[in-house]
Design goal:
alpha+beta
Length: 115
Amino acid sequence: MQALFLVLNRLEKIDSLLSAFNEAGIKGATVINSTGMAHTLAYNHEDDMTFASLRAFFVGNREDNRTIFMVIDDSKVELCKKIINEVIGDISKPDTGILFGVPVSFVEGISDFQK
């Protein structure tokens, strides 16, 4: 089993992504609001020129992103990655997102586990 985490910066894609997961039989993802460290430092330390200069690297006024996480069977990892790339595009492009997986040794409390 894997816990997949996607920190998604392109918020306009969230509904399409979750719908694509659902259509592929991948259910049970959790979505939380999140904010990156650099963004938080840049906007919370306006008097510090070092942090204030970081603002130049941010596109628009986006203050947050979404973190999507789910526990899935190892056999579904590649399918999830494929769906993410189809819906979001090349995740390696700047200001798109970050995807990573973490091995899970056990799961309790998921009635509709992703087998």
